[in-house]
Every structure is written in C-alpha cells, then in structure tokens.
Amino acid sequence: MPEAPTMIAGRYRLGEAIGSGGMGRVWLAHDERLDRDVAIKEIVLPPGSEEDAAVARRRTLREARAAARLNHHGVVGVYDVFEADGKPWIVMEHVPSRSLKEIVQEDGPLDDRQAAVIGLEILEALRAAHKAGVQHRDVKPANVLIADDGRVVLTDFGIATIEGDGLITSSGQQLHASLDYMAPERAQEGEATEAADLWSLGATLYDAVEGRAPFHRASAVGTLTAIAADPPDPMERAGALAPVIDGLLKKNPGERLTSADAGRLLQAAAEGKSKVARATAAPIAPARKDQDPPGGRPGPARPLIIGAAAVAVVLVVTLVAFVLTRPDGTGDTPGDNIAAPGPTASAGTPSAGPSDAPASQAVQPSPVGAPTPSPTGQAAGGGENAGGSGEGSGRPQLPQGWRDYTDPTGFKVYVPNGWTQSQDGTMVYFTGPTGRVLGVDQTNTPKADPVADWSEQRDTRIADGDFPGYSEVKIVAVDYFQKAADWEWTYDSQFGRVHVNNRGVVTSPTQAYGIYWQTPESDWNAANKDLQLIFDSFVPKP
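and the corresponding structure tokens:
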C-alpha cells in the first residue's frame, strides 16, 4: 500500500522535490486550507553547534521578511514561515519554471535581445527591492526563474540585507553568494549595496549570452583576484548588450551604471534599437576580423599588478572565511554553472533596412545613404589631412579628460575618458554614464544627397512609430568635409525626453561616415561644446 503524502503544519501536503541546494530542499506542495499549489523550502540545518543552527534559522526568517516586504510580479511571493520537525520552512508562491542557469546549460546561451528582456525584468525586481530597503546580494543565473508563461522572477533572498533589520549576520556570513557573480567591494570588504546588486546583474547577463561567468578561473582565489584586478573576459556574443554589461562591471561602484542608465540601455537592446549611429550611406556589414569583438577590450590592466598582489592576500583571507562559514560546506561553487560558449553572434547584412531608434543610450541604426562627394570641401575644424592632436595638426588641443581614439579602420576622433566602447558591425560607439552617446559608422559607397536621404529616413521611421512625440529641429546641409547634412530631433523615450543629432558626411568619393550624438534633452545645451569638439577632432582614414 503506498505511503500517504506527508502533511506539514497541519495544512501543507508535500509532493515531489523540485529543487535542492546548499541550504535545503524545495518541495511542491498543496495548501489544503486554501486549495492551491505552493512551493515549500525545507531548511536543512547544518551539523555542528547550536549557534550554527541558530544562524540558519535567522537566515530563514530574514529571507521570508525580505521577500514579504516586496509585492512585485518579478519577485517570488512568500506566504508563510514556520518551524516543524525541528526545522524552519518557508511557504512560497509556486512558479512552474526553469532557472536561467538551467536554460543556458541545457539550451545554450541566449541572444542579446532575449537576454536584454530578461535583464529588464531582473532590474525591475531589484528596483522594487531597493526601494523597499532590501539588497538581494545573490543575483545569479540560478536565482533567476523563467516561468513557463514567460514571467521572469528573482528568487532566494536568503542572504539579503534589510534596512533597519537586526538580523544581519557577521561579515563572514555575507559571503554565501556565488563568487562568480560577487561584486569586488563585496568580495573585499563585505559591502552590501544597491551597486553591488547591479554588478551581479551584469555578471548574470554576461553568463546568459556568453555561457560562462566573466571572471571565472580554475581556483576560487584566482576568481576573486580576477574580480578585483582584471577586466571581464572578452565578449563574443554580447552584441547590443556589450555596453550595459561593461558599464555594470565597472570595478569602482561610483563609475558603475546607475539603475536608470542600465534600464535605458537594456530597453534599447530589447527593442533592437541599440545599433545607433548608422552612417548616412553606411549599410550594415559583418564585423571585420581586425576589430575587437563587441564589448571587447585589451587584456588585464597591468598598472594594477602592484595592487593585485596585496588584493590577493586579502582575497585569500576572504576565501577562507567564505569556506568556513558555509553552513554545510555544499552548494554552488565558483563556475559550477558554466556552459560551453556558442559561436560568435553574427552582425546584420548589407541588405538590412533601418532598425528602430534608440530608447536611450544606444546608437540609432539608420543605414542612410550619404551623397556622392564633390571634388572639394574641407572639414570644419580638422581638415581632411589633419594629423595628430593640437597645434599644427588642424585639430584642437586634446583637452584633459579626453583621449585621441584611433579606429582600426583608420579614422580618429576625440572621446571622453571612461566611456564604454563597443563594436557592432561597421559601427563603433561610446556610451557615457549620464546618458550621452557617441557613435561613428562608415561606408565605402556614398549616396548622392544627404538631405534627401535623411528626409526619407525620417518619414519612414516616424511612420513606423520609432520616435514617439517626434519634434524635428532641422534637416540641413552643413559645411563639413566634401558634403554633409545634420538631422536633429527630439522624442520621448521610455526614460524621458532625448535630443539627437545624426551627421552624415562624405569625406572622399569612396568614403562616408555617420556621426551620431544623443543626450537627455535637459543636457543638450551643456553637451554642445563636447559635440563641437568631436566634430572638430574627427579625421577620416587616410
């Protein structure tokens, strides 16, 4: 005769186990009183002292309190917490789902647009948590559930911190999070901040598209050292997500993307609007072999070497604390969710039409045609033969806080220090922390009339609904190199009013560029001097 299902707390009938981890098991159960399915987490108390058991009980209560503070569709709801059979239990909303970790392992990495949609949902859940005074502290692919109905849910607030909560544990207990997704300030100093959650979001998005964690090394100490001192491993599949991942993985929390800026970039990527600044006359082409991969950057910054040795010592001590304070010595290990990376994501094709405009900090993909060049014409500020920076070169002096960027294809332009660089096909773009975007695209097949081309593009894009609240400032020819035209306009993005200027310019019979510039509307006037510096410093390839 089969065994009767186990009844817990007089009302919850346990079914099958649907998950397990270092802290316990999750069961599918039925609430007999309310006649609904629920998920119940059984906390397995660690062997050892009563103090360890007390810590686990406090952790359980903290998880329940943290999640119960939140009433958000992107957070698993908590219904009850109780103790039975000498163990704590948490009753939660049942979400039929797979974790992001399982999806990447079983199905392979996601494309950038899919990952951006998921990232937006995670970000919204984190915003709700932060607004309620809760820092999650363990954002990772295993804690992101993708429901059967498509809902994205953040779960496991077991090591969350709650503003004003007296249940915060010691610094050692703060390190139950997976190392691969832990912000450097948490790894080194145990700091629990909103910015640290955003770092973990960046590492999670990296994993989603690349199939591996961005700083994983063969040993835990190596992983921690990489988090503290190395750039993330080069991205091959990130595409439109490269700017937001790079911005979220800044070592210095003060330089990291804010929630609002990350949201703008994610929205643009999710809507396919991130390929901004398509040159007038620049069809979308496959990425060239001589360019860095999207979001790629040079190897580890060895000015960091002196500090890295000291950091490593700190991290070894931190790692020991991490290992010793895990309640049962089990659970996630660094890199245990790594899947084989997929092939490099392909760029668009020359036949691709213009895509949607950016919601914010992304570059507008407008493969517009540039004019057939006239035999004369000179750049405003920097002439066609301009060379290095400063006096005698035809370019303005390089200001402090800027760098002279030289593209592998040969063009040059001044770019603010610290802006995130990414490559997408023929386009390179740079995103600043305050919503400013610079993008440069190019083509070797200029078109005839830049003004007519921008006008055609405008009509098409407005008809497609790309620019809600579109207000045209101008479409005019400008005196710049051989032929050029500016298309300037404002529109309502999801995150506020933005102001855009896209300049299409022909520099030779076989070369044209698009220089795209975008800022929040409130920042446009203040940013004008920077845009003029960019125009004046631009030098086409020889």
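(Above: one complete record from the training split.) Residues 305-325 form the longest helix (21 residues).
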